[in-house]
């Protein structure tokens, strides 16, 4: 599967990315970037962050999750603090903790950190983007848009391929979402 490129854009990089196109627009040999299916167009030559093999578990409603491998191409760690998708009103950054049969999902405090020059795998049974209360069905082959917000306020976008996946049949029980007694729900893991 092709690598999906995602880039945090600042106003300066947006201007720099568009300036060459504006200058060549009157010329006859302007080259326009093309994107292959399932990839996001890259606006700068060297992306700070990429996501390889992004996919999302199919679901008609309820819960789903998105996976892939985040790759940091910079010399500085990148912190992801939140995510959104039109398919769900709430996306949480989750991890699975525990041992053997006593595994539970929980939000990751402080978000995901992709180390400088490193990778962070989002996978069933580990870190993932949890879609709560899916309202737009996700079918096999769908291209689902996501936006991640970084700690510095920049946003990056990518698409994930809808895939049928039978693992991760979560059981949700009231009162287990975190170590706090006031929590309202927590997924208890089976099959992940």
How many strand elements? 13
Q: What's the Cα radius of gyration?
A: 18 Å
Broad shape: globular
Report the mean per-residue pLDDT as an integer. Answer: 73
Q: What is the CA-CA span between the terminal residues? A: 23 Å
Q: Tell me the strand order in the biggest sheet.
A: 2-3-9-5-4-10-11
Provide a count of the helices: 1
Q: What is the SS-derived class?
A: mainly beta
Summarize the main sheet: 7 strands, mixed, barrel
Low-confidence stretches are 1-46, 171-192
Strand content: over 45%
Please give the share of residues in helix.
Answer: under 10%
Q: What sequence of helices (H) and strands (E) makes up the elements?
A: EHEEEEEEEEEEEE
Keywords:
globular, 7% helix, 1 helix, mainly beta, two-stranded antiparallel ribbon, disordered C terminus, 192 residues, seven-stranded mixed β-barrel, disordered N terminus
């Amino acid at each position: 599967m092709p690598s999906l490129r995602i880039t945090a854009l600042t106003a300066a990089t947006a201007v720099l990315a568009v300036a060459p196109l504006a200058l060549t627009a009157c010329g006859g040999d302007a080259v326009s970037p093309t994107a292959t299916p399932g990839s996001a167009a890259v606006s700068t030559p060297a992306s700070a962050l990429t996501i390889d093999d992004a996919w999302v578990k199919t679901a008609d409603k309820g819960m789903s999750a998105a996976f892939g491998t985040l790759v940091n191409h910079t010399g500085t760690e990148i912190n992801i603090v939140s995510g959104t998708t039109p398919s769900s009103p709430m996306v949480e950054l989750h991890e699975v903790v525990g041992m053997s049969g006593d595994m539970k999902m929980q939000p990751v405090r402080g978000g995901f950190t992709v180390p400088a020059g490193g990778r962070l795998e989002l996978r069933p049974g580990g870190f993932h983007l949890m879609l709560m209360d899916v309202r737009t069905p996700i079918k096999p082959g769908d291209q689902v848009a996501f936006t991640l917000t970084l700690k510095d306020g920049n946003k990056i976008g990518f698409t994930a391929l809808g895939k049928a996946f039978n693992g991760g049949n979560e059981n949700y029980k009231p009162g287990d979402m975190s170590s706090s007694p006031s929590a309202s729900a927590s997924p208890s893991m089976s099959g992940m």
